[in-house]
Specification:
single chain, alpha+beta, Alpha-Beta Plaits, 3-stranded mixed beta sheet, 8 helices, binds iron/sulfur cluster
Length: 241
């Protein structure tokens, strides 16, 4: 029937209007910013860098400046410069770190590809959306100090995902420790099984080693005439009758 859709729509509106007086589920709007809805766990906007320790964010960045995310970012809005030196990561292994790490969030399209390609779980998607700014280049370009956020924050905004990551990293660390222990044990066993060098017989008998034998003097060769080897021997005179 012509106009039935309009009647249905008005019925839904009336139902929500009347229900909003007694049922919070019927409240289709919130009084932002005084009121806020819960953000779904999988909501994302811009990336941030995960640090292991909130008290030392720059010293415990998980990022090792491999630059994979920089290469894979479609709009090329990540800028990374590797450090010249190394420092221990969260597990104590010496690693490079980003001397410079920046993301231009005015260009970022929230695709999450940087997160997908990172082999170190060092970059994750944030949920901060109140980012209105009057200066694009100073306020929307986030350097590593602004990007760094602790792992506890990651657990707060993405609890399920963060728990999976932690479990995987813990398993990887345990496996690495077991591998190192096994390698050390195998090395020690190989060193123990190696035969000791045979002892010197003279030293066993208590006889002093006379040391190297002096070279025997060579007999002097008498000087010979230069043509001695070619001069014919004198013939005996023939017998006389
Ligand atoms: S979310 Fe996408 S566009 Fe944004 S920094 Fe990561 S890879 Fe680049
Ligand atoms: S965030 Fe990940 S992929 Fe990007 S440079 Fe750091 S370790 Fe490499």
């Amino acid at each position: 029937m012509l106009g039935s859709g309009i009647i249905k729509g008005l019925a839904v509106t009336a139902k929500n209007f009347a229900g909003s007086y007694y049922d919070p589920q019927r409240m289709v709007t919130v009084e932002y910013p005084e009121q806020r809805t819960n953000i779904p766990e999988n909501y994302r906007n811009f990336p941030f860098l995960v640090t292991e320790n909130a008290t030392d964010p720059m010293g415990t960045l998980r990022c090792v400046a491999c630059q994979i995310c920089e290469k894979e970012c479609p709009p090329q809005c990540i800028i990374i410069e590797k450090s010249k030196d190394k420092k221990p990561d969260a597990t104590g292994k010496m690693q490079l770190y980003p001397a410079v790490f920046g993301i231009d969030t005015s260009v970022c399209m929230s695709c999450q590809i940087c997160v997908e390609v990172c082999p170190f779980d060092a970059i994750k998607m944030d949920q901060v959306f109140e980012i209105a700014a009057t200066n694009r280049f100073e306020e929307l370009f986030l350097d590593r100090e602004k990007l760094a956020k602790p792992n506890s924050y990651y657990h707060q905004i993405h609890p399920t995902e963060a728990a999976e990551v932690d479990a995987r990293l813990t398993a990887d660390r345990l496996a690495a420790e077991e591998k190192a222990k096994a390698a050390a044990a195998a090395k020690a066993a190989a060193a123990a099984a190696k035969p000791a060098p045979a002892p010197n017989a003279s030293s066993v008998a208590g006889v002093a080693d006379p040391g190297p034998t002096p070279a025997s003097p060579r007999p002097a060769i008498p000087p010979q005439p230069a043509d001695a080897h070619v001069a014919p021997a004198p013939k005996a005179p023939p017998p006389t009758a």
